[in-house]
Amino acid sequence: MNLSKKAPSCIDLERSCQVYKCIQRKSALQPGNSKVILRATGILLENLYLEGCVGKLRFEADEPVERGGIDLAPSPLEYFVIDAVF
């Protein structure tokens, strides 16, 4: 993937705007129900290799061998760094 070239936007900005406005309207009608709660669960599978779930999504994380892991998945630090892109 060549990141130096600017890729065309694949985000439907009109749809995103409509969803945002819909959420605003619902929040205005029911101020007490405007909270969003996310729950995460995790299980240690082996050594530092773990699996976590948020909603329908499943994530795996591990540490490299030099930090005591078995290097089967991205490290938590790598997830944190890629998060800056989003």
SSE order and pairing:
Blueprint: H1 13-29, E1 40-46, E2 49-54, E3 57-61, H2 76-83
Written description of the protein model:
The mean pLDDT is 86. The chain starts with 12 loop residues before the first helix and ends with a helix. It is built from two helices and three strands, in the order αβββα. It has a domain at 38-86. It is flat and about 50 Å long. β1 (40-46) and β2 (49-54) form a beta hairpin. A three-stranded antiparallel β-sheet has the order 1-2-3, with no helix packed on it. Helix content is 29%, strand content 21%. The chain has 86 residues and is an alpha+beta fold.
Name some characteristics of this structure.
86 residues; alpha+beta; three-stranded antiparallel β-sheet; 2 helices; 3 strands; 29% helix; 21% strand; flat
